[in-house]
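Researcher: Quick sanity check before group meeting.
Model: Go ahead. Protein one:
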Amino acid sequence: MVFTGSVFWSAVSGEGELRVEIEALDEHFVLPLAEDGGLTLDGPVGKTRVEVKSGAVFISDSDCRDKLCIAMGEISSTSAWVACLPNRVFVRLVAVTSEDAQSPGVDSVAF
């Protein structure tokens, strides 16, 4: 629980361009929120489709049983997240400043 709180604090502490960060099993993906697109991820119970459209991100399809991840709807601010727990997919938005893009270092997912 402490880890989750620190991730959100780190994500909302900056101004700048928003990017989509997706964690799925042992993989980490980054997509620009400004460009429409998406990707399909494999998980323990099947596939989960994450889509970026018109400045928002959402889970459009998943092989999970209850489809709660789809019902969560779209997010467009750094204070929100969506997840498919059965497929172990976690999606959040992170604000990236020009300073963040230029300096390597510890990111918001490190603990």
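Researcher: Fine. The other one?
Model: Protein two, sequence then structure:
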Amino acid sequence: MKKTKENIEDKIKLVRSVNKNVRCGTRKLNPILKAIVGKKVDIAIRNLSFSDKRITKDIKKTLSSAVANAENNFQYDIDRLIVKEAYCGKQVVMRRFRPRAKGRASPIKKPYSNLTIILSEIKKVEKHGTKS
């Protein structure tokens, strides 16, 4: 059982890129990441370029890094790469305090996140002639 799993993983190589300490909360990152999963890389980069969210620049940089990893390390064709997975996780939370009325202070939480993007290559699908 173990050998067949290794053979499958040898055929399908995944390329990943991780960006740690992204200055954004996971609640703001998740909708953007869900929008690019399953799309071709060039379409995902185009969509991120035209988004007006601040954090899309960091996501685009991480996606470009994953594409460069695929090209240099595995010699993949860039035109056949798709975003297989994109997810984020919590990192540290920076705490600051803002002065309020009557000598009080209220906390401000500034969350950080980890960003992971996994790419895979589309296999060439051979179309067989069908009888009609």
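Researcher: One line on it for the slide.
Model: The chain has one domain: 15-121.
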